[in-house]
Amino acid sequence: MHVMLDLETMGTDCHAAIVAIGAVLFEPDTGVMSSNFYRIVDLEDAAEYGKLDAGTVKWWLLQSEGARQIFAADEESVSLTRALVDFSAWLEEHQQHERDTPQVWGNGAGFDCVILRNAFESTGVPVPWKFWHERDVRTVVELGRSILGYDPKRDMPFDGVVHNALADAQHQVRYVNAIIQLLAER
């Protein structure tokens, strides 16, 4: 079971406050996406468990109105603990059998997976994957660029709202699959 993860955060270090979690189940060899997960985390609650940095706050102010909607979604936002419990339940619901440990993909070896794992630990919610099952999108992208001359930032248009955690996760699935397909053809 492969899970593409994307977080929207209020910082860039390993304990950044999480304001949105987006994830999608997918098959890396086909690109088929089968289930989505999306939660907006209440900003005040996020700040209780993670760090905010001024540079990231300024960056958010410069993003599109669509991206900034997560800060106006009070009715939709939940506590970080609730979001993590829901995420774990979503993963468990889609496991075919007990041995089907999620392969969790993040965009950067030290970003999405690490920040989310730290959030699980900070809230006391058990981490629903093994650290050795973390995968890195940027490694695949670098293979695409260096071996194939394929750059998804240049060669693949974005569909959806940029910096929406779910749209970003779906986009990452599309370009990881495109690179895998191109590598398989070599």
UniProtKB/TrEMBL annotation:
SUPFAM superfamilies, A to Z: Ribonuclease H-like
InterPro entries assigned: RNaseH-like_sf, RNaseH_sf, Rv2179c-like
UniProt GO molecular function: nucleic acid binding
Pfam families: Rv2179c-like (PF16473)
Domain 3'-5' exoribonuclease Rv2179c-like: 1-179
Matches recorded under Gene3D superfamilies: Ribonuclease H-like superfamily/Ribonuclease H (3.30.420.10)
Protein name in the entry: ATPase
Natural source organism: Candidatus Erwinia dacicola
